[in-house]
Amino acid sequence: MGGTQESGTEGIHGGKDGRGGLGHVLSGVAVAVGFVLFLGAFVWGALVYQPYTVPTDSMMPTVNPGDRVLAQRIDGGEVRRGDVVVFTDSMWSDSPMVKRVVGIGGDTVKCCGEGGRLTVNGKELDEPYIEHTKPGATAGTGTGTGTGTGTGLGVASDTPFEVTVPEGNLFLLGDRRSASLDSRAHLQEAGQGTVARSAVHARVDALAWPSMAMLERPGTYASLPGGTSQPGPLRLQLAAVLAGAALVVLGAAYGPVVRVLGRGRRREPAGAR
C-alpha cells in the first residue's frame, strides 16, 4: 500500500530527478508567461515613454532640477490644459523644454484676476502646483518673505498680460513663475509667446528619479471645455512587470521546493506511514 502511495505521488510531482508531471508543466508555463509579461512591458514602455532630465528650476516645486521624468510620446493634438509637456521651439531654444500648458487655441489667458490669480476665459484658476511669490520678492530666486507653495500667497505672475491664443497654438508657463522664461518672455514676438501644438512631442506622466510619483492632472482645468487629459498606460505597464517577475520567481522555485519536500518524505521512518 505504501508503494502505491509513493507511485501515485511521483505521478503527480514528477520523477526522482524533479522533471515531468503536471506541476512542472504548469511551473514552466508560469515562467514562460512571466517572461512574456516582464519583457513585453519593458518593450511597451520603451515605445510609449521617453525619459528626460530636467536641467532647470523653472518647474519647481512640481519638478526639481536634475529630476528624471517619464514623458509619454504623444501628438500635439492630444494636449489639454494643465498638461506638463516637452516641446522644442527654435524661437525659445534648440533644446527640449518642459512647461505647463495653461491655454489652448481660442483661450484668453490673463493675469492677474482678483486675488492675483491667473484667469482663462474669465475663470480664475486655483493653482496649488505653483510656487507663489508676493510682489517685491526677488525675481529668479523664489525666496524672501511671503514665498511658498499653494494658493493665497501672492500673484500668479509678476508680469501682467492678456493674450488670446491663436488656433493650433498653446500658451505655456513654468510652475516657478518668478524664475521661468516662458510664454511671458516672448509676448512681443509673433503669436504673443504661444507655441504651435506641433512643437510638442511628449507629455510628462511621472517622476522617475530620485522620487517616484505620478503627475496629477490639475482639477482646476476640469470644468473648462475639453477637460483634462488622461494618464498614460504607465501603471498598467508597471503592474505587468511586477506580475511577470512574480510568475518567473514562483515558477522557477517550484522544482527545487518539490525536490526538497520529496527528500524530506523519503527520509521519514517506515513506521511513520
Helix content: 25-40%
Number of helices, counting only DSSP H or I runs of 4 residues or more: 3
Kindly state the number of beta strands.
Answer: 14
Largest beta-sheet characterization = 8 strands, antiparallel
Class per helix and strand makeup: alpha+beta
Q: Which spans of ≥5 residues are poorly predicted at pLDDT below 50?
A: 1-19, 135-152
Distance between the termini: 10 Å
Radius of gyration: 29 Å
Shape: elongated
How do the SSEs run, as a string of H and E?
Answer: HHEEEEEEEEEEEEEEH
How much of the polypeptide forms β-strand, as a percent range? Answer: 15-25%
Mean pLDDT equals: 83
Active site: 58, 99
InterPro entries: LexA/Signal_pep-like_sf, Pept_S26A_signal_pept_1, Peptidase_S26
EC number: 3.4.21.89
Transmembrane segments: 25-49, 238-257
Notes on the structure:
- Helix 2 (22-48) runs antiparallel to helix 3 (234-266).
- This protein has helices at 2-13, 22-48, 234-266, and strands spanning 49-53, 68-73, 84-87, 97-104, 108-111, 119-120, 123-124, 131-132, 148-149, 161-164, 169-173, 195-196, 200-209, 213-214.
- Strand 5 and strand 6 (119-120) form a beta hairpin.
- With 273 residues, the protein is α+β, with helices and mostly antiparallel strands.
- The protein starts with a helix and ends in a 7-residue tail after the last helix.
- Strands 1, 2, 3, 4, 11, 12, 13 and 14 form an eight-stranded antiparallel beta sheet that branches.
- It is elongated.
- It is a single-pass type II membrane protein.
- GO terms for molecular function: serine-type endopeptidase activity; signal peptidase activity.
- Keywords: Hydrolase, Membrane, Protease, Transmembrane, Transmembrane helix.
- It is an enzyme of class 3 (hydrolase).
